[in-house]
Amino acid sequence: MYTQALDAKTEQGAQPSPRLVTEQEAALQSRFQERVDAEEKIEPRDWMPEGYRRTLVRQISQHAHSEIVGMLPEGNWITRAPTLRRKVALLAKVQDEGGHGLYLYSAAETLGVSRDELIGQLLSGKAKYSSIFNYPTPTWADIGAIGWLVDGAAIMNQVPLCRCSYGPYARAMVRICREESFHQRQGYELMLALAQGTPEQKRMAQDALNRWWWPSLMMFGPSDEQSAHSAQNMAWKIKRFSNDELRQRFVDATVPQAEFLGLTIPDPELRFNAETGHYEFGAIDWTEFNEILKGNGPCNRERIEARRKAWDDGAWVREAAVAHAAKRRQRALKKAG
Amino acid sequence: MGTDLKEALFAFTLRLGDTSLVLGHRLSEWCGHAPELEEDIALTNVALDLVGHARMLLTHAGELEGKGRDEDRLAYRRDVFDYRNHLLVEQPNRDFGHTIVRQFLHDAWAVELYGRLCTSRDETLAGIAAKAVKEVRYHVRHSGDWLVRLGDGTDVSHARVADALGRLWPYTGEMVERDGAEQALVAAGIVPDPADLKAAWTARVEAVLEEATLDRPADGWMQKGGRRGEHSEHLGYLLAEMQFLPRAYPDATW
């Protein structure tokens, strides 16, 4: 699963502040850009502009936080999955997300920040995570809709990141994308079972589509005109396609899938344009998006509270592990001495 | 296989399947709420293995019974008094310490049981055990390592797991209880001797408790009944949650 595109104008700190650049630094920058242009991977010990590093730390850590917070809405249904096969699939999916969080935090750590520091930013509310996880999962169909739509949107965003200029991030993305596409197929298959099921199940599926459609489109981030960092991120090859391009691809891929399910996309303005070969869709309600970013989504408080509670309740466990490791070291030293 | 033996094997397999399912459910309640990310992943992974074992065991139980009940029919359409899991595994998570103590007491039993079931005369059960034992060896290492860390960690962690051990110990008698039907399975070479299992379990548990600087509780009165369908109040809530969808939409397939 994935975070929304991260280049809203409200975001701070991606651009290096204008200042005088030494000749030596200018040479490094131009060498860096040449390497990026030549599609060479930038590795942790290579020189990189401070803005590049900051942008990556922010993007990778937000992505990691999204994976971790994303475990909550789906975890909500593990104990209630309606068959053992579905339960196992959901457990495995949520476990994969934890694993994605782990590799992403590790990728961020190669840029000189610690996982504890990043988690501290999440728990204090300073760091963002994908707004999509601030929506609730009241019914079982939400599990299908998340797999199908949210993971589907994530894949659109993430596949280009496998070619991201920063090596550790690109490599983490390759593995993540493989797992995500499996999740997406599982989600769709779950929706199909509901759509072909009893009228009550079909109603459940439609209701979930109604609630997840627009938030999924918002995952691609603000439209290109509103997007602040796109040009620089494209030049650095952190980003390969614009938000609107990716959003359009997602709509084009997803509408026929909804038709196959016999479900209706909740957009009266949706229509196929035979000339362009693309679906045209209605205007996105960015007011809602911005409110959720500000913390006013249906589950913002619960999600962060759940993460904080897990962290606080686990403090004695982490302390015990540290204390035990210290005791072991001491004993080993005594033995050796 | 004679009818009596088959019935006894059904009861044994169902008990093991229910125990795996209920414990898997309890562990899955941790998902997203563990003390650190590695534990979120580890506990979910163990839950996944346990539900996997439950699927194989319940499927086998359904086949032995021969009444057309599959894994889901058995998991989702039985009430409390038809569940046969050990009382230990339905006890609530409380905190991470209780979860680890419960898990270790179970894992130490499961690893010994599955190790012996690999040579069962029932080929299906032997096959399930061969797969399960590989996973359970990892489980017992995970829960045992944590028990040592917590027992021999800080004063707070020691007190918490000591409390958990005292609370949960009375539920361990049932795991190695003998009954008449099971004796016939032992005689037929289908399941291991509970006495032998008990000795192996005890040795394993005592070794880890010692390393964890925890006192082994005295064997006082043991709580029993899970094997006969006599459960604590906790199981009903667990089943209400687990079975909600198939109960609410009885005609649906998922």
Question: Total strand count of chain A, please?
Answer: 2
String of helices and strands of chain A: HHHHHHHHHEEHHH
Shape of chain B: globular
N-C termini distance of chain A: 51 Å
Distinct helical segment count of chain A: 12
* CATH secondary-structure class of chain B: Mainly Alpha
Order of helices and strands of chain B: HHHHHHHHHHH
Strands of the biggest beta sheet of chain A: in what spatial order? 1-2
Beta percentage of chain A is: under 5%
User: What share of residues are in beta strands of chain B?
Assistant: under 5%
Rounded Rg of chain A: 22 Å
The major beta sheet of chain B can be summarized as: none
As for the CATH topology of chain B, it is Ferritin
DSSP helix fraction of chain A: 55-70%
Structure classification of chain A: mainly alpha
Q: Segments of chain B where pLDDT lies below 50 for 5+ residues?
A: none
Number of structurally distinct domains of chain B: 1
Poorly predicted segments of chain A = 6-14
CATH superfamily of chain B: Ferritin, core subunit, four-helix bundle
* Overall average pLDDT of chain A: 92
